[in-house]
């Protein structure tokens, strides 16, 4: 009887499947792969990838070098010598939230060293995935790995005095990353509150 069931199943499955994989099917697959890659790029970088020949990269969108020189002019225009000592309040004015509207550089601090990350607005700008870290010193969040979501739910703070050696090593790795990629523009000077002196 078990043999009859096996024979019935094989008899119900046709040997020949009608149809073919045509050009339209190939285009559908390629479009699906392209759209999936766009979603991944948007999730990782915070901006949509558009090939250079298709983008509108005319006079309206300055290149990175002119953008960086524009921000160097920002410091001179506002009579700020670099390196500059930033207070917490002063640093907060340079978050990625309004940098484009106010024509300000985007700054973040790691272990009280302030870096100008304006050359990567896709990561740190108004819609950037790492905007949370701008305009402040989030050293305590740099104890986490790149894809560790705990960094996004942990409030930012500059104090890492209670970190163990493994956490400090991770902060040093992030510091080296920023130091190798972005210019340092100063230091964060933390105001000491009168209650801390007692």
From TrEMBL:
Top-level taxon of origin: Eukaryota
Residues annotated as signal peptide: none
SUPFAM superfamilies found in the cross-reference section: Cytochrome b5-like heme/steroid binding domain
Cited Pfam families: Cyt-b5 (PF00173)
Domain (Cytochrome b5 heme-binding): residue spans on this chain: 86-189
Similarity remark: Belongs to the cytochrome b5 family. MAPR subfamily.
The protein, known as: WGS project CCBQ000000000 data, contig 00016
The organism of origin for this protein: Kluyveromyces dobzhanskii CBS 2104
Organism classification: Eukaryota, Fungi, Dikarya, Ascomycota, Saccharomycotina
């Amino acid at each position: 009887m078990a043999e009859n069931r096996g024979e019935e199943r094989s008899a119900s499955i046709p040997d020949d499947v009608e149809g073919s994989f045509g050009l339209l099917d190939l285009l559908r697959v390629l479009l699906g792969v392209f759209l999936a890659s766009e979603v991944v790029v948007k999730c990782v970088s915070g901006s949509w990838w558009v090939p250079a020949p298709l983008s509108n990269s005319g006079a309206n969108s300055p290149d990175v070098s002119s953008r960086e020189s524009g921000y160097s002019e920002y410091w001179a225009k506002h009579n700020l010598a670099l390196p500059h000592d930033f207070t917490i309040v002063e640093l907060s004015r340079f978050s990625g939230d309004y940098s484009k509207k106010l024509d300000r550089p985007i700054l973040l601090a790691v272990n009280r060293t302030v870096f100008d990350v304006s050359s990567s607005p896709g990561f740190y700008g108004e819609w950037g995935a790492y905007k949370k870290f701008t305009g402040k010193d989030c050293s305590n969040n740099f104890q986490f790995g790149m894809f560790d979501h705990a960094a996004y739910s942990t409030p930012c703070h500059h104090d890492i005095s209670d970190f163990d050696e493994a956490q400090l090593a991770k902060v040093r790795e992030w510091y080296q990353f920023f130091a190798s990629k972005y210019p340092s523009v100063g230091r964060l000077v933390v105001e000491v509150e009168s209650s801390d002196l007692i």
